[in-house]
Design goal:
three-stranded antiparallel beta sheet; 3 domains; 19 helices; 8% strand; homodimer; CBS-domain; elongated; Tetracycline Repressor, domain 2; MgtE N-terminal fold; 64% helix; mainly alpha
Chain lengths: 440, 440
């Protein structure tokens, strides 16, 4: 790997891939494919400012390597230079011993800052905020305000949004740099600022924070405590990461995959095994109930073996329809499109949708039923299809609401769970109808 | 509904809900629950600037109402005032007759702007960009540049990022307002600007655009044509919407739901039916193959009815494991965590993960197999479980790569599709092993 002399902004690697050396994300990607020794070697060659930006883009494995192998003075310089939100993520990944040593080596302000940010639970606003924000006193005029922003710019995540606070750090209002530029020279910050500030508490869930930022197109969102004192801000780039990660988490939940803390590419065989096995085994035991249902009807099956032909088809259809319903509902609840109060209206609508779907699918199998077992079996299969699809869809629609009402994450209504519930009910419905209609 | 006199920034409704009247998203939410007549009545009472912001947050139904019922002079004032990206979305929703009439009523510049933005396909960068951006000439000094930004501020989506162009509108570089504030008085824009600009083409897919914005934490991303001329910019708030919508779309695809163009809450019975029925019926026919497999082994089933007990359990397990694999892979491909070149490494890893999972699940059912049918059946069930889980997982892992390689959306490897493939293979594997081991 070499830094191209003619254009020091680019790195050309041995395999001729070109990266923008000025972009931390690109530098980190290149580093992530090196051995730890090489990575450390090249990392040391970077300037401190770039180092501070690169760290948050490195893989977990590499971050831990830095934390445990960089000489302590270098590590504390690095950590002091990093943005507070990147810094606390880095800190949280370190082994406990390294954390303690690091804190001892830092200045008081940084140590307290890390402690404060690390005290918040992982899914909260507090865990993603930064403590580096721009504040202004209400009595300044625009020219003074801009001069102050210029002055504190190196220490603020953003100067485009400034927060007006009193001497107790209580949030009085916000003002944007754009407004300052356009303001008349005699106005004060107190006059210019927006007083109804949209803010969140430190314990607000990340998903809720993302909904708010998205709804109001915010560039930055202040985080306040119960006394309305400013604790930190969350910026748009971190929200973009939150939205992407939350979507990934929900998608994984829908397939009953436990929370993966590392990048998928880097995960080990054992990690992947561990995150998936629990639910798969639980679902096996859950599915035993559908087997029990079948056991109950063993004689019927022995007499009409043609019924078995349709079994996977029917229970799959219930599962598919239920998955569709659940997917729609879980996502709509997550993005805020649908709320608890809409439940009855949506369930009623689902009855009709599912009825229509069930009838279409019954029509599709009816002909097959005739061919395989005659009109009796066709009737059984057709009726069962309608019933199974309706039950599956209604369960799939209702379950996310129930979970949401109980304060749980609707995304826990996973596809395998819905499918298993549909299977059990499907088996019982199918053979119950069969035993009735076939006079067994 | 009333505007509260004491605090004109709030609206208190008859049911005592309070909305921020200053926030377009809140005003629109209130409007979306009114009848069209009431909505139009109250909309007219708003100032033009707020109207222009509110439109993009209104439901599709309400936007169409505005387009068809507002008097033409009002409509063209409104459209002229709106941001270009919101405006073209509004325009695209109008019935064709209304579109034509509107274009006739607009000034030339706005008409051409709408035509240009509307010419891009829905999934492209061109469809989400705005043409309102700040440009600077390279020879300006910082003070002149800031003065210019102040001047053009009403007409630019953002003044925090400015684009340096030559007389042919070719993009030479970018400079941020923060850099301008911190720059020395004698520097020129040409010296300050960043020359390696991260930009995209107008036909770049939205998902790709989102990956880039996320990777480099961009506040705004310029869109250029083949001659490097600046066409427009995409801002962080629109990317946040893109990421959320793309995630929703992928989740729906994973359950084989067709693209819903309206809000879930507002969708009609027929719309929901239409979006879901096609795939459900197709999957029914697909599942006929698993039935055919069963038909082939009808005699075996008649002789060993206990085998049917385990059928749903086994094929479900294959489907669950396959869904997990597919979910992990589809999402990782969508967010860029995993690329095509990682395929063989990941498939190899999956062999081991799936083997481990299969053995665990086989152990779980083995005892049951003993109870229900003796050691022979237990063997058959155990072996089948391992084989079925491995095949399901590998298919679930491999299919997204195949689709991606063929240029299709990996998210088309939906859970129902994976489940159906697992079912068919599961049935064949199970009864093949059974007929071998039970010497049938």
């Amino acid at each position: 790997m070499e830094f191209v002399q003619s254009n020091p902004k680019l790195i050309v690697t041995a395999d001729d891939k070109v990266y923008l050396a000025s972009q931390p994300a690109d530098v980190a990607e290149r580093f992530n494919s090196l051995s730890r020794g090489e990575m450390l070697e090249l990392f040391r060659q970077l300037g401190l400012a770039i180092q501070a930006k690169v760290v948050s883009h490195l893989s977990e494995r590499n971050q831990v390597a830095l934390a445990t192998r960089l000489p302590r003075p270098q590590l504390s310089d690095l950590v002091s230079k990093m943005d507070p939100d990147d810094r606390v993520d880095f800190y949280n990944r370190m082994p406990e011993g390294a954390q303690q040593q690091l804190l001892l080596a830092l200045a008081h302000a940084e140590r307290e800052d890390i402690r404060m940010l690390a005290s918040y639970q992982e899914h909260c606003a507090g865990a993603i905020m930064t403590s580096k924000y721009a504040t202004l006193a209400p009595e300044l005029n625009p020219e003074q305000a801009i001069a102050r922003l210029r002055q504190i710019s190196p220490d603020a995540e953003t100067v485009y949004n400034a927060y007006v606070v009193d001497e107790n750090r209580q949030l009085l209002g916000t003002v944007s740099l754009r407004e300052l530029l356009l303001a008349g020279a005699n106005q004060t910050i107190a006059e210019l600022m927006v007083k109804e500030v949209i803010a969140v508490n430190a314990d607000t869930h990340k998903e809720e924070v993302a909904k708010i930022v998205r709804r109001y197109d915010l560039m930055a969102l202040p985080v306040t405590d119960a006394q309305n004192q400013l604790l930190g801000i969350i910026t748009y780039d971190d929200i973009l990461d939150v939205v992407t990660e939350e979507a990934t988490e929900d998608m994984h939940k829908s397939a009953n995959i436990g929370k993966l803390t590392t990048n998928l590419k880097d995960a080990s065989i054992f990690q992947l095994f561990k995150k998936r096995v629990l639910w798969l085994v639980l679902l096996v035991f859950g599915n035993v109930f559908s087997g029990a249902g079948i056991a109950h009807y063993e004689d019927l099956i022995g007499a009409y073996v043609a019924l078995v032909f349709f079994l996977p088809l029917l229970i799959d259809s219930g599962g598919n329809a239920g998955s569709q319903s659940a997917t729609l509902m879980v996502r709509a609840l997550a993005t805020g499109e649908v709320q608890l109060k809409d439940c009855s209206k949506i369930m009623l609508r689902e009855v009709f949708v599912a009825l229509g779907l069930g009838l279409c699918m019954a029509a599709a199998v009816f002909g097959l039923g005739m061919m395989r077992g005659g009109s009796e079996v066709a009737m059984v299969v057709g009726l069962s299809m309608v019933a199974i699809v309706m039950v599956g869809s209604l369960v799939g629609t209702f379950l996310p609401f129930v979970l949401h009402k109980l304060g749980m994450d609707p995304a826990s209504a996973s596809a395998p769970m819905i499918t298993s519930l549909s299977d059990i009910s499907g088996v019982l419905i199918y053979f119950a109808i069969a035993s009735q209609l076939l006079a067994f």
